[in-house]
């Protein structure tokens, strides 16, 4: 009887222990064997079996009121950004038709009577485009609301964008979705499209149950007293195997085939270098071209050098080397990295700031993290936190590789470059009052810092040691964290749907976890682990991203299950944080971090390190090791040498120390809209922005004044550049308006390219003067322009150009040229793609600033060897005019 009683008590205590929350917030709770979020629960029934009853809230009720907009050539050019059509879809017999909407005139037809869409609601949308067609006929072009001209020859069609499926707000990719193109089949100028809303076959859901089906025993086996953690680890191992293609490379996600430079590199760093070294090598080599240089994936403006974060490849390659000790790989990777870094140094390095130009690392969807006015040439000129952290570490890696290969001169050079980038980051991007780094420097002739936080960049600055220990602790304690995790940027951008904006990415959360562990912030470590476990448990897969406001996978613009960098991050929780395993050139070191809430015994068996197999046992909690032994032999050194062979047992006992620190957990927040700025007749004016309390005016990159008005007199014959930032009731800043400058005949000289070079014979429209000049790899690859300036001074040189070799957001045909003044290299200009076959679409390049003395000079625009783009064959643009602006 007593024995039975004792057993029952033991079972009850065990059940109570299992139900004790490991983590709890207002939104979700994690227990040892389950995750609970409202009415939903995910439970680990065993280390190989999880069940979840999660349902996406987006599937339950779809609003009958929809927002949408029309787009000529797929561009956001119908009305002001954020100004949309709104319609409540009221069906009769399952169908509805809009009134005829005139392009550019807002439709507001809403009703409170109908709340939700019926399933499979058929909506016909009718658009009056007669004014557009008449302008094409009479003038040869259509003028949009903001004065841009769309030439008849460049007209590709009219598309619809919106926030309710099948509509999408992805203007950059609308042209690839022919199902979203309106048609005028009877030629009456009224375009139509028929769409099905709340289509039942589109309902998004995840699996309700996961059972292990693949053999994961060749990989490290993790066991702890937390069944949900053990099961999620095993689920991630299985998804790793599912991500390996038949050709022994990684696919990016269930929905995304192929190897992508950022995804594969960040995944390798997280855990794939040691778990799948051969697959990791094969995958990295897929991103190397015939010139033994790293490939920047297709992207904004035609890829590199508008985007320059391809150098994360170098950090991944180094991780493979220190994991495997493969000397042949070291030599091969060194050559590829050096070739690539040499080109970046010549095309993307800013000698003034010490920073590197190019789009934010991984945040490669223009308006998702940049103001809409920024064109690809502007994005090239931005100097971004995450991208610069990548280049810092890539130069450190190159220096280490060079030293190992006895290339000491190269090593010294790249150590110096890395230190210059580090100094630039800490000088120009650190915001003392916020105690974290800003997002990027942006603008045109004069740049300012965007005060948004950028999660991946913040994390990398801590992990790579760009932030010193004191600054790292400040950063981790003060960077904003939201309910379900750290958002990619904070605060959010208005009128931009979730993807990078207003979204959480588990792989970014993992890098933030690493940063938190390095800074010794237990609270941030715990939050991060739980913010990775929750979605993986609820969705029963490692999703790509989720919406900040509700933590759901449904609602971001695109998403995938079995996402490589997400599953890699999940696995790294165990290997690189809990057990603190760190690969180095000559050893494997241990610096575990076990939060108090996860205290207890755990083991990691069959961990392969070079020629050794390790079984690791650990007990306790904290981040201080009280005892460390190898095969029963105590050691004061918490590492094993790279030369170790065979099977070994490592035992670690932690000191049970607590390191609770503060975090900055905040509600999600969105800034006010970006203002529209004008300068006419010496009056600077801007639109009144709703809920603004003040407008901060900048002159030449410096604060001029703060005002509650919407205009300012700025009479001055000298050139000055102005921007305006909106301040809201909480003192939070909007993005800066597109800069405007005082261009006039006293400070600006225009030179037509055709005056000194043979004009092209194409029939493109919209150029100035009497023509324009073509430049390709074989035609006018070097152009000479005679120049005369009336006064010595500091000048900005930019060029009006066209590049119709590809769309704004993808492909790889960004044109690149080196500018020389009297034979001296003064900088690199980019002429990014402006639209597929849109050769009458003209815009300005980035500006190069240089000192020019009074008198006559020769400007050379040349295609140098280092200007080879990612396409290698097509590197072309049409050059219209050259603008010389005297800044001072």
Question: Termini distance?
Answer: 96 Å
Helix count, per DSSP? 15
Q: Largest sheet, if any?
A: 6 strands, antiparallel
Percent strand = 25-35%
Shape: globular
Strand order of the largest sheet: 1-2-3-4-5-15
From the alpha carbons, calculate the radius of gyration and give it in angstroms.
Answer: 29 Å
Structural class: alpha+beta
Low-pLDDT segments: 1-17
Strand segment count: 52
Percent helix range: 10-25%
Mean pLDDT: 95
Word description of this protein:
- The chain is globular, with a radius of gyration of 29 Å.
- A hairpin with a 2-residue loop joins β3 and β4 (40-46).
- The termini are far apart.
- The longest helix has 22 residues, at 327-348.
- α3 packs across α15 (564-578) and α13 packs parallel to α15.
- Helices cover 24% and strands 27% of the residues.
- It has 888 residues and is an alpha+beta fold.
- It contains 15 helices and 52 strands.
- The strands form 15 sheets. A six-stranded antiparallel β-sheet has the order 1-2-3-4-5-15, covered by helices on one side. Strands 16-29-30-34-31-32 form a six-stranded mixed β-sheet.
């Amino acid at each position: 009887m007593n024995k039975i009683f004792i057993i029952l008590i033991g079972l009850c205590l065990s059940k109570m222990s299992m139900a004790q929350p490991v983590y709890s917030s207002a939104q979700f709770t994690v227990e040892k064997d389950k995750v609970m979020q409202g009415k939903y629960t995910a439970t680990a029934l065993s280390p190989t079996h999880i069940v979840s009853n999660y349902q996406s809230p987006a599937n339950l009720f779809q609003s009958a009121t929809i927002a949408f907009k029309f787009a000529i050539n797929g561009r956001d050019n119908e009305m002001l950004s954020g100004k949309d059509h709104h319609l409540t879809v009221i069906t009769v017999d399952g169908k509805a038709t809009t009134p005829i909407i005139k392009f550019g005139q807002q439709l507001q037809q809403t009703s409170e009577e109908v709340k939700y869409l019926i399933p499979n609601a058929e909506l016909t949308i009718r658009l009056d485009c007669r004014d557009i067609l008449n302008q094409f006929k009479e003038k040869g072009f259509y003028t949009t609301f903001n004065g841009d001209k769309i030439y008849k020859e460049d007209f590709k069609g009219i598309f619809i964008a919106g926030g309710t499926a099948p509509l999408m707000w992805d203007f950059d990719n609308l042209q690839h979705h022919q199902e979203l193109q309106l048609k005028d089949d009877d030629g009456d100028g009224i375009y139509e499209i028929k769409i099905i809303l709340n289509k039942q076959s589109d309902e998004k859901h995840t699996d309700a149950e996961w059972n292990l089906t693949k053999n994961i025993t060749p990989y490290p086996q993790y066991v702890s007293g937390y069944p949900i953690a053990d099961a999620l680890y095993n689920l991630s191992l299985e998804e790793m195997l599912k991500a390996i293609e038949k050709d022994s490379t990684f696919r990016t996600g269930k929905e995304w085939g192929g190897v992508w430079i950022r995804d594969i590199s960040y995944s390798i760093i997280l855990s794939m270098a040691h778990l799948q070294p051969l697959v990791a090598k094969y995958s990295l080599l897929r991103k190397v071209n015939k010139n033994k240089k790293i490939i920047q994936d297709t992207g904004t403006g035609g890829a590199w050098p508008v985007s320059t974060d391809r150098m994360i490849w170098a950090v991944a390659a180094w991780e493979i080397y220190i994991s495997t000790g493969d000397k042949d790989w070291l030599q091969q990777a060194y050559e590829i990295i050096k070739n690539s870094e040499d080109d970046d140094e010549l095309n993307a390095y800013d000698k003034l700031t010490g920073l590197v130009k190019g789009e934010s690392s991984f945040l490669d969807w223009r308006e998702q993290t940049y103001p809409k006015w920024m064109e690809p040439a502007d994005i090239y000129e931005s100097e971004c936190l995450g991208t610069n952290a990548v280049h810092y570490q890539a130069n450190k890696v190159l220096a280490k590789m060079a030293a190992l290969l006895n290339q000491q001169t190269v090593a010294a050079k790249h150590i110096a470059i890395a230190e210059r980038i580090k100094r630039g980051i800490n000088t120009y991007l650190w915001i003392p009052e916020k105690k974290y780094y800003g997002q990027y420097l942006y603008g045109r002739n004069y740049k300012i810092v965007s005060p948004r936080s950028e999660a991946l960049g913040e994390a990398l600055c801590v992990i790579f040691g760009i932030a010193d220990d004191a600054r790292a602790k400040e950063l981790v304690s003060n960077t904003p964290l939201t309910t379900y995790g750290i958002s990619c940027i904070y605060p959010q951008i208005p009128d931009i749907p979730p993807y990078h904006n207003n979204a959480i990415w588990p792989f970014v959360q993992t890098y933030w976890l690493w940063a938190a562990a390095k800074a010794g912030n237990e609270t941030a470590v715990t939050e991060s682990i739980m913010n990775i476990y929750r979605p993986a448990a609820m969705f029963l897969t490692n999703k790509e991203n989720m919406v900040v406001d509700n933590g759901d996978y449904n609602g971001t613009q695109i998403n995938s299950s079995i996402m490589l960098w997400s599953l890699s991050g999940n696995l790294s929780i165990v290997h690189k944080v809990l057990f603190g395993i760190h690969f180095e050139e000559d050893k494997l070191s241990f610096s575990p971090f076990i939060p108090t809430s996860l205290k207890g015994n755990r083991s990691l068996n069959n961990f392969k390190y070079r020629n050794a197999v390790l079984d690791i046992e650990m007990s306790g909690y904290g981040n201080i090791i009280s005892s460390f032994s190898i095969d029963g032999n105590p050691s004061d050194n918490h590492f094993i040498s790279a030369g170790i062979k065979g099977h070994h047992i490592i035992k670690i006992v932690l000191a049970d120390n607590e390191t609770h620190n503060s975090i900055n957990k905040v509600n999600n927040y969105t800034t006010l809209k970006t203002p529209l700025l004008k300068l006419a007749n010496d009056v600077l004016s801007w639109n009144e922005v709703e809920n603004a309390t003040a407008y901060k005016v900048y002159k030449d990159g410096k604060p001029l004044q703060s005002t509650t008005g919407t205009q300012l007199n700025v009479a001055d014959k000298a050139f000055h550049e102005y921007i305006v930032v909106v301040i809201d009731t909480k003192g939070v800043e909007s993005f800066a308006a597109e800069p405007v400058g005082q261009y006039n005949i006293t400070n600006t000289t225009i030179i037509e390219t055709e005056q000194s070079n043979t004009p092209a014979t194409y029939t493109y429209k919209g150029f100035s003067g009497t023509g324009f000049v073509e430049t390709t790899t074989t035609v006018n690859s070097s152009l000479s322009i005679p120049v005369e300036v009336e006064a010595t001074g500091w000048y900005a040189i930019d060029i009006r150009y066209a590049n119709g070799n590809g769309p704004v957001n993808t492909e790889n045909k960004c044109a690149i040229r080196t500018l020389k003044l009297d034979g001296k290299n003064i900088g690199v200009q980019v002429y990014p793609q402006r639209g597929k076959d849109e050769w009458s679409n003209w815009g300005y390049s980035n500006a190069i600033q240089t000192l020019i003395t009074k008198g006559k000079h020769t400007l050379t625009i040349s295609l140098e060897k280092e200007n080879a783009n990612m396409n290698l064959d097509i590197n072309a643009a049409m050059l219209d005019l050259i603008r010389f602006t005297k800044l001072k």
